[in-house]
Design a protein that fits this description.
The chain has three helices and seven strands; from the N terminus they run H-H-E-E-H-E-E-E-E-E. A hairpin with a 5-residue loop joins strand 5 (136-150) and strand 6. It has 220 residues and is α+β, with helices and mostly antiparallel strands. Strands 1, 2, 3, 4, 5, 6 and 7 form a seven-stranded mixed sheet that branches. The longest helix has 42 residues, at 3-44. It has one domain (3-170): Nuclear Transport Factor 2, Chain: A, CATH 3.10.450.50.
């Protein structure tokens, strides 16, 4: 075999390696997107057992101004007692009852997988409808800044979830008239750490830090 053929084979092998790496990156990105979208659908129907299975055992969760909850026990508190408690008592198990609404649309997903192929970050928006027929109805909206980790089993899970509400407002009045304050730290279920940022919802303004640089200028 000539030196020219050796060089060509080496180049083809390098091209194949790069293509395999790119395919793996695309597959990992899609896996993270599916993970986050599945989260939204399970939260919609208060399927807390399915929601909790999406998180790593050492996860960290911060939703609104409630503070930071860590690990499986913290995730259980967040979803069964704090978030789930908005519409149903946590001792009623999974699922919505008649007259309950809990939609959490996952929008504008932007995912970046780290070079190690084991960690990723994502920014999303949640548009939320919460209602109990004849009792309450409100809107909420805001971005997530999340982190994800691929386990030894090759499955992606949510390792860090932070949701920063832009606004809460009653359905009857809307954001043009009323901006409600976000929930504070729970005295009944205290967090493992205080909120990572101090801010106010609409009519206040707050821009959570972006995990990614500007795609054109490279600025952070």
């Amino acid at each position: 075999m000539t030196m020219g053929a050796d060089a060509e084979i080496a180049a083809l092998r390098e091209e194949l390696r790069a293509l395999r790496q790119r395919v793996q990156l695309l597959e990992d990105t899609e896996a993270v997107k599916r993970l986050q979208r599945a989260y939204g659908y399970y939260v919609d129907k208060a399927l807390w057992t399915q929601v909790l299975a999406l998180f790593s055992d050492d996860c960290e969760i911060e939703i609104s101004g409630r503070g930071v909850y860590r690990g499986s026990a913290g995730a259980e508190t967040v979803f069964r007692r704090l978030v789930g408690g908005l519409i149903a008592k946590h001792d009623q198990g999974d699922g919505l009852s008649r007259g309950q609404l809990h939609n959490h649309l996952q929008l504008q997903g932007l995912v970046h997988v780290d070079a190690d192929g084991r960690h990723a970050r994502g920014r999303w928006r949640a548009l939320i409808q919460v209602g109990v027929l004849g009792q309450l109805g409100h809107w909420a909206e805001g971005p997530y800044e999340n982190e994800y980790a691929k386990g030894e089993d090759g499955i992606w899970r949510i390792s860090v979830m932070r949701w920063y509400p832009t606004f809460y407002t009653p359905y009857e009045e809307g954001w043009g008239r009323t901006g409600l304050p976000m929930p504070g730290v729970s005295a009944e279920y205290p967090p493992d750490a205080p909120p990572s940022h101090r801010y106010e919802t609409y009519p206040g303004t707050f821009v959570p830090p972006y995990h990614y640089p500007h795609p054109v200028t490279g600025e952070r």
